[in-house]
Amino acid sequence: MSNAGNPVRRAQEARFSGQMLVAMPSMPDERFARSVVYMCAHSHEGAMGIVVNKRAKKVAFSDLLVQLDLIGEDQAIALPGGAGATPVLRGGPMERERGFVLHSADFSAGESTVEIDASVRLTATLDVLRAIAHGQGPSRAVLALGYASWAPGQLENEIQHNGWLTGVCDPSLIFDDDQDAKYARALRSIGVDPTFLSGEGGRA
After folding, report:
1. What values do phi and psi take at 12, rounded to 5?
2. 204 to 144, 161, 162, 163, 165: CA distances (angstroms)
3. Which residue has the higher pLDDT, 52 or 73?
4. Is 120 helix (H, G, I), strand (E, B) or coil?
């Protein structure tokens, strides 16, 4: 987590910002198989998003707070307001040592917080983790390690070649903790029955 080089702020002309990408079965990149990605930024300069349905294995939120010296070890079992249950996700293959907190709109760390849409904000500094640790953070939050990014035109090309479906993202798909169910839920939310989804999309 740092204040420098926020990849969200590099994109200004939003297109898919605030929407979700759902990987098609034909997705050629195994890193994104069955992924649901919340899009934080998209413009002619490229795109950036957070995978919201892949749990980071063997990583607990309270342990990360201890490692970052935000709390002491004796405080890890008694975090306020159930903060210890905050999900820790594998946000994508880029900068996997870097943390991004997607959270509800009832918290802001000033210029460090980016408003993605009316319901979801992103903060990539320690301010939000410190606030959560002391019971002063957002009502809903997930911590993602890493992010996904696309070069200019790359995402559009992947969508055209049936790599992704796109749709409106219900905030519950970000903040709910049932990661295994999110892929099917995301498909159903855009009118696709996962049972009948073909591995190859149609081509005009």
Report:
1. -125, -30
2. 37, 11, 11, 15, 16
3. 52
4. strand
Average pLDDT over residues 85-92: 93
Tell me how far apart the alpha carbons of residues 181 and 42 are, in angstroms, rounded to a whole number: 26
Torsion of CA 133, 136, 138, 144, to 10 degrees: -20
In the numeric block, which tokens belong to residue 9?
């702020």
Pull the structure tokens for residue 6.
């926020």
User: Which amino acid appears at position 149 of this protein?
Assistant: S
pLDDT in tens, 188-200: 999 998 887 755 4
CATH of 7-193 among 3.40.1740.10, 3.10.20.30, 3.40.50.620, 3.40.1360.10: 3.40.1740.10
CA–CA separation, 152 and 41 (whole Å): 12
Q: What's the token pair of residue 146?
A: 């890493």
> In whole angstroms, what is the distance from residue 45 CA to residue 166 CA?
19
pLDDT mean across residues, the chain = 86
Q: Which two tokens stand for residue 127?
A: 């301010």
Q: Are 150 and 94 in contact (CB under 8 A)?
A: no
Domain spans in the chain, listed from the N-terminal domain onward: 7-193
Our measurement of the distance from residue 47's CA atom to the centroid of its chain's CA atoms, rounded to an integer in Å, reads: 13
